[in-house]
Give the backbone structure.
Amino acid sequence: MKKIYALMAILALSFSVNADALTVRTEALSSGTYEDGEYTKTNEKFEAEYVIDEEAATIKRQNVYESTREGRDEEVAVYDITNAMASEGLSALMVSRKNMRQKIYTGIKDDEIDSVELIMIGETFYQICMAANGKFYIEYGKVEKISD
């Protein structure tokens, strides 16, 4: 009987845990908006938890811990992963050697007719940009891995 319960527990765990999912916590370090050709630094606070699921090809914002962003919806959001790759050298997006060879996930959220949001999450950093209502919003921050 104990073997049956052990087997049932193993089966339940295997169906409820996605081995390809990664959970991270992000914290904004810098942010701003472009409007009419002018950049305004905002330094809004934003901390959130994301689940990166390669099997489902999604990045899901599931918890927002702190947000001072004005006029932005901070509910649960799902981004479609458009790219997942390891960086191999310096580029315009990876200007420091400390960010080399990280796996970087790129996702897009396009659920409104007047808004498009792009997120890139690496092992130590993330970047978000959003175009909406005649403004271009950008944000950069750090990443902490919570679980694999």
Notes: Strands lie at 21-35, 38-41, 46-53, 58-67, 77-86, 103-112, 115-121, 125-132, 135-147. The two ends are 32 Å apart (CA to CA).
